[in-house]
């Protein structure tokens, strides 16, 4: 008895299985756009649309501009610090591990790289301010 789970073999390039997703995405996007444009608003939604003729984005921008800019700044700062840490400790990890092994001759030397990253994370967590009981502004 054969344990082969698929009778179909694809001899094309390794990325060839992704090709059908391109037209499928376009077809679904066009159909979704057409469907949303052709379906009318519900009675409950129509009342809401008549009450607020301005965009929710405009309402937020007019009433909460300072908070919006502050939130964007905090999110950008957090994203940059996260991406930097992932790049340094994740992306370069194979190169650093190879370099450490070649320099020391010890196959366990990458553990010092991991320990250094853990120590930096521990110090950063210890220096962070606790905000669990803080009232949000």
Describe this structure in words.
- This protein is mainly α.
- Among the domains are: 32 residues; 38 residues, no CATH class.
- It is built from 6 helices and no strands.
- The longest helix is centred in the middle third of the chain and has 27 residues.
- The chain is flat and about 75 Å long.
- The N and C termini lie far apart (67 Å).
- The mean pLDDT is 83.
Write the layout of secondary structure elements.
Layout: H1 21-38, H2 43-51, H3 56-63, H4 65-91, H5 93-104, H6 110-127
Which features characterize this protein?
137 residues; mainly alpha
Query: Radius of gyration in whole Å, from Cα?
Result: 27 Å
The topology string of helices and strands comes to HHHHHH
Shape: flat
Q: Percent of residues in helical segments?
A: 55-70%
Low-confidence stretches: none
Describe the structure concisely for a colleague.
The chain is mostly helical and 137 residues long. The chain contains 6 helices and no strands.
């Amino acid at each position: 008895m054969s344990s082969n789970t698929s009778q179909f073999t694809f001899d094309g390039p390794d990325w060839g299985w992704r090709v059908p997703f391109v037209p499928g995405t376009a077809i679904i996007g066009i159909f979704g756009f057409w469907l949303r444009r052709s379906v009318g608003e519900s009675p409950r939604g129509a009342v809401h649309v008549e009450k607020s003729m301005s965009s929710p984005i405009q309402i937020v921008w007019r009433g909460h501009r300072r908070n919006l800019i502050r939130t964007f700044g905090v999110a950008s700062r957090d994203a940059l610090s996260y991406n930097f840490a992932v790049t340094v400790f994740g992306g370069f990890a194979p190169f650093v591990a190879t370099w450490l092994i070649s320099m020391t001759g010890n196959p366990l030397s990458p553990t010092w790289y991991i320990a250094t990253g853990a120590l930096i994370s521990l110090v950063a967590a210890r220096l962070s301010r606790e905000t669990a009981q803080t009232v949000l502004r």
